[in-house]
Amino acid sequence: MQRIALGLAYDGSGWRGWQTQPGGTGVQDALEAALQQFLGHECPTICAGRTDTGVHALSQVVHLETPKHRELQSWVRGLNALLPDSVAVQWAQPVSADFHARYGARSRTYLYVVRQAAVRSPLLRERTGWVFQPLNLEAMQQAVLALPGQHDFSSFRSSQCQAASPVRTMTAASVTQQGVFYVFRFTANAFLHHMVRNLVGALLYIGMGRQAAQWMAELLLQRDRRLAAPTFSPSGLYLAGVDYDPVHGLPTGNIEATWAQHLPWFS
Prior knowledge:
The chain contains six helices and ten strands. The chain is globular, with a radius of gyration of 19 Å. The chain has helices at about 25-40, 70-80, 135-145, 195-205, 215-220, 255-260, and strands spanning about 1-10, 45, 55-65, 85-95, 105-115, 130, 150, 165-180, 180-190, 235-245. Helix content is about 25%, strand content about 30%.
């Protein structure tokens, strides 16, 4: 048996999230069906982060085990010939038996893109979030400073979240503006269900002037989801990168280059 890591990108708008679903509507279903055709046997997969319905991935990482041997380029080209157009393998690499796509991840980075304009764009439907109200970048940048560190993120946790603890360690959080696009970036050891969408919802309330910048720090202390902003749309959310120990040699380190490859209009 050998263990293989795959890097995936996908448009999540037509899928019920990563995880396998009745009727085969999860990205995992599509990948495992392609693997069965490619390898000739059932091949369960484990991913770095289970994205929700409508959420995209620029750099999802998956591992699997198989007794079959294929050239690395065959993993990419062969699987992509069997996958739907909305899912594509970006790279393949053999890894040691102790590599684990989920438990071996040191951090995950999510990117959320919001387009601020008076009128929605049908060409960016399900690619970005959209707000028509003007946004105060400085207020959002001040608010996001409260997020790095170890916190109880209960105020930003879905009621359906199954995580054993609401405590997470966020190592970086930022908001930048690129023309009409506002880019929200979060890096943490792990994320709770709907956590990024709930953080973005709160930051947008601050950007719109509905709340002051210090509201973010207050929500962290209150630990009450009912007091925060509504969950924002999944349309502009991307799993942008997963970080592993360099010993594995995976091509996941340059998140900016990955963004520029897939999302050049706001990279």
